[in-house]
Amino acid sequence: MIRILAVLVVALSASPWSARAAAEPEVTVTLSATPSEAQVGDRVRLEVRVRARGGNIEDLRLNDLKKHLELEIVSHQTMRPMQFSFGFGSGVQKESSIANIYVLRPGAAGTYEFSPAVAKVDGKIYRSEPLTLVIRPSASDARDPSNPASAPGADLSGARYDPRAFLRTVVEPTEVYLGQQVNITVYLYTRIRLAPQSVVPSKPSMDGFWVHEDPITSLQFETVSVKGQQYRAYPIQRSAAFAQRSGELTIGPPKIAFDAGTGNFFDAPQRIERVGVPVAVRVKPLPPPVPLNAVVGNYAIDARLDRRTVKTGDAVTLRVNAGGVGNVNDLRIDLPPIAGVRTLQPAIRDQQRLTNGQLSGTRSWEWILIAESPGEHHVPPIELHFFDPDTETYQSARTPALSFSATGAAKAPEPTIQAVDAPPKPSTATFGPIRVYSALTRDQTPVRDRGWFAWLLALPPALFVLLWLGAAVSRRRERRGTTAGAVQRKLLREAESALQADDPRTFYDRIVASITHALDARLDESVAGLPHTQLLERLSAEGFDDDLNQRLINELEGADFARFAASGVNRDEMERCLKRTSAIIERIQRSASAS
Amino acid sequence: MRVSFIAFVLIVAPLLGCATASAQQAPRTTEGSSLTKIFESANVAASRGDHATAIASYVKLIESGVHDPDVYFNLGTSFAQSGDYPRAILNYERALVLRPNESKATENLRDAEKALEEERAELEGEATIQRSSSISDAAYGTVSEDALAYAMLIANLVFFAALASVSIGRRRHRWIYALLLASGALLLISALGLATKAGLLRDGPRVVTLEDRLVLREGPDPRAQLRGEARGGDRGELVDRDRDFVKLRMVSGLEGWTRASGVGLIDSDHGRH
Predict the structure, then answer these.
(1) Is the CB of B187 inside 8 Å of chain A's CB atoms?
(2) Which one in A82, A134, B68, B222 has a CA-CA gap of 20 to 30 Å to A27?
(3) Which residues on chain B are in Cβ contact (under 8 Å) with A457?
(4) Range B104-126 burial, b when 16+ CB lie within 10 A, else e
(5) Which one of 1.20.1630, 1.20.120, 1.10.3230, 3.30.160 gives the CATH number of domain A484-594?
(6) From the candidates A207, A328, A447, A449, which should be mutated to test the interface with B, based on the most B CB atoms within 10 A?
(7) Which residues of B touch A447 (CB under 8 A)?
(8) What average pLDDT is seen over chain B?
(9) What is the pLDDT of residues B117-141, one digit of tens each?
(10) Tens digits of residue pLDDT in B64-83
(11) Residue B67 sits at the chain A interface (C-beta within 8 Å)
C-alpha cells in the first residue's frame, strides 16, 4: 500500500514537467554543405535537417534551392526517422526528425548564398543558420579559361548571346565548293539546369543543301567558358550538308524549347524557348574546266562482270562500285553504248556512313547487258572525275577494260523487264460532247487590272469627299446668312404687317429694330443702347459715308419720335418710311459686302 | 432636288465613265478564219477519236493567244478521252476559271477526278485526289472574277451615294439607311471575293500536278534530298521559282521543289505550262 502511494506521489509530482515539455518542444534546424567549397563539376552534399523532441514536425523548406539554377540536383533523398522514449520523470517522449539530402553538381563557378532553412513544428517557425557555398572553376578551366580544346569555344559567331541560354550554329567551313561537305552543328549553351526529356529542338531550314543527318541520341555536354562564365554546351543537331547550287546559301535559325527547373517534384518547371541566328555559306562553282560529271570528294572505282561467256541472247551483269569520301548521291556514270549489246537501265544502290564528321559511302550500279550478237564484246573503261578541295585539283579514277564473249546463233530477244502496271481499265465516265461553237476569245486582261478600274473605284469616295466639303462650306455660309438676313426680312415683314394693320407704334418699333439689327450684323456688336451721337461716331469710324450716316440717324430719330407720337403719322408717311428703311438697310448690307 | 443631283453625280456619272471605258476596253474577239479553221479541224479530229491531233490543234489555238473556256473544255475532254486525266483536270479547271458557273465543265471535272481515282485504285488498292477545299473558294467558286469586279464598282457607287445622301442630304429616309447597309455589305463581300479570285489570299497561283509520282525535293536540283511525292491531278500552289524549277505547296501540306514541266498552272495571270 505504501509502495502504491509512493508511486502516485512521484507520478503527480512529475506531471507538470511533462506538460511543460509537451508545450515547448526542443527543435534544432541545421543546414550544411559538404564540402562547403568545391570546384565546378564536383559533387556537393547539401543537408537540411530538423530535429524535434516532443513536437510534431509539420514542414521543412529550403527556398533558395530554386534560385540557383546552376546547381544541378543529381539526387534527392528524404529521411524521416522517429524515436520514442519511455521513462519516469518525463513520461513518454517522442523524438522525430526530417532530413532532406541533396547531392548537387555545380555547373558554374560562384558564391551561392542560401537563406536559412525553415521548419514548422507544432505551428511554430524555427530557422537554421544561413549557408554559403563557394564553387571555384575546375582545374582545367583555371589553367585555360578560354578552353580552346573544346569544340564550341568562346567564339560567339552564329549565336545571339543570352546570359542564361542561347543557341549557336557552327558551320565548318563557311566557304565551300559546289558539292563539298559542310558540317553544321547546333549547340545549346546554358548555365541553367535543363530536363533532358523536355528538350524539343527544331531543325534549321537548309534549302539548297542535300543533308545527311547525324542523329543525337543522348544529350552530352562539355563545359566551356564564355565571357568569363562557365556554360554547358550541348550539341543538339548535327548534319553533314552538301550544297546543290552555287551562290550564297543560308542556314536558317534553329529553335529550341526546354524546361528548366530544380528537378524537384514540388517545383514547377520553367519553359524556356530560344531562337538562333541564320548563318550564310558561300558556295563557289567548281573551277573550270570542269570534267564531265565531276564531283567533290575522293573516290576509287572498280568494275566486274558476273560471267565471261554467255549464250547469245543471254545477259551478263556488269557491276560498278565507286566508294570513297564524299556524297555518293552526286556520282553519275554514263555507260557508253556497246556494239551488239543491249543495255538496260541500271539498278543503283547507295550505302553511306558518317565517320568522325566525314561522310563517305559506296554507290553500286548494276547493268544488265544482253548480248544480241555472237562474238567478243568489250566494255570500255568507265572514268570518274573528282575534285579535291584541299589541293584544288581534279583527279580521276577508272575501271579496267572488261570483255565477255557470246556464243551461239542470235535469237529474238525476250523482254527482260515485264510491264509492272496493268493497262488501266477504261473509265465508265463519258466526257464531252465537245463544243462546236466558240467565240475563240483572246486572252483578256481582267477587269481589276484595267486602268480605269482603279479610277472608277476611287471616284465615288473622291466625289463624296468633295461634295461633303462643298456642302460643309455652303452650310456654313448659309448659316451665317440665315442668322442675319432672315431676321432682317422678318422684321421688315412685321413692319409691313403693322403698316397694313394701321398700327404706327408697332410699325416704327419694327423700323428701329430692323435698322438696329442691320447695324448689329454689320458691326458685329450691339448698337441698341448707343446715343445717336456716339452711333454716328462709330459709323464714321467704320467707314460709312456721311450721307448714309445722316440718313440713318434721321430715320432712327424720326422713328423714335413717331413711336411716341403715333397719332400724328399718316399711312403715306409710313409707306415712304418703309421704302427709305429698305434702301438704308440695303446700303448697310452693301457696305458690309464691300468691306 | 439636291438629293437627286447628288445621286446623279455619284451614280450616273461614274456609270457613264464605266460604260465608256468598257466600250474602249471591250474584249477583242477574234473570228479570224485561220483560228476558226484550226478550231473546226480540232473538233473534227476529236469527233473521229484522233485525240492526239485534236489536242495538238487546241494547244495551237491556246498558244496563238486564244483564252476561251470552250477551247479549254474541248482540250480537257480530249485529254480525258485519251486517258490523260491530270491534264484533263487542269484544262477543266481553267475553263471553270473563265466561266465558273458552268455545270458541264464541273461535271466533267468531277468525272475526270473519279476516273483517275478508279484507275489508281485498280492498280494500288486505294486512291485519293487532293483538291483545294477552302471556304473562300467554295463561296466564290461559281462567280467570275469580272462579275465580282463589276459588283464591287456598283456597290462602291451605291454605298458612297447613300453615304452622301445620309451625311449631306436634308431628307433622310429609312430606306437610304437600309441601302447604305446593303451596299456596304455587298462592297465588302465583293472586295473579299475579288481578293480571293486575284489570289491575294493565297501564297501563289494554283497548280495541278501533271505527272504521277512527281518528286518534290529539298532544293531546286535533281540531286537534292527527296521530300515526298505528289500524285497526278493533285492540287497545290506555286510558291517560288528558280530557273526550271518551281516550289510547290500541295493541299496536303507537302512542300518541295520540282521541275516546272511536271505541273500546270490553273490561274492565267502567271503564264501557262
Answers:
(1) no
(2) A134
(3) 152-153, 156
(4) ebbebbebbbebbbbbbeeeeee
(5) 1.20.120
(6) A447
(7) 145-146, 149-150
(8) 81
(9) 888 887 776 667 767 666 777 778 7
(10) 888 899 999 999 999 999 99
(11) yes
Q: What are the distances in angstroms from CA A97 to CA A58, A62, A91, A101, B17?
A: 11, 15, 20, 13, 96
**Does A7 score more than 70 pLDDT?**
no
Give me the residue spans of the domains in chain B. 33-128, 140-197, 206-270
What is the pTM (predicted TM-score) of this model?
0.40
Fold of A295-407: Immunoglobulin-like (2.60.40)
Q: What's the CATH architecture for B206-270?
A: Roll (2.30)
Kindly report the nearest CA distance between residue B177 and chain A, in angstroms: 16
Q: Do A442 and B77 touch (CB under 8 A)?
A: no
Question: Over the stretch A411-448, which tens digit does the pLDDT of each residue have?
Answer: 554 444 444 444 444 455 677 688 888 888 876 778 88
pLDDT over threshold 80, residue A363: yes
Average pLDDT rounded to a whole number, residues A352-364? 87
Q: Quick check: B32 and B61 in contact, CB under 8 A?
A: no
Give, in words, the CATH class of A142-284: mainly beta
Q: May I ask the CATH class of domain B33-128? A: mainly alpha
Q: Does the CB of A480 have a partner CB in chain B at under 8 Å?
A: no
DSSP, collapsed to helix, strand or coil, labels residue A589 as: helix
Q: One fold for both A295-407 and A484-594?
A: no
d(CA A350, CA A346): 13
Is there a contact between A446 and B118 if contact means CB atoms under 8 Å apart?
Answer: no
Residues of chain A in contact with residue B88, where contact means CB-CB under 8 angstroms, are: 431
| Nearest CB to A467; choose among B21, B153, B164 | B164
Is there a contact between A515 and A580 (Cβ–Cβ < 8 Å)? no
Confidence check: pLDDT of A307 > 80: yes
User: What SS3 state is found at A363?
Assistant: strand
Query: What CATH topology corresponds to A2-136?
Result: Immunoglobulin-like (2.60.40)
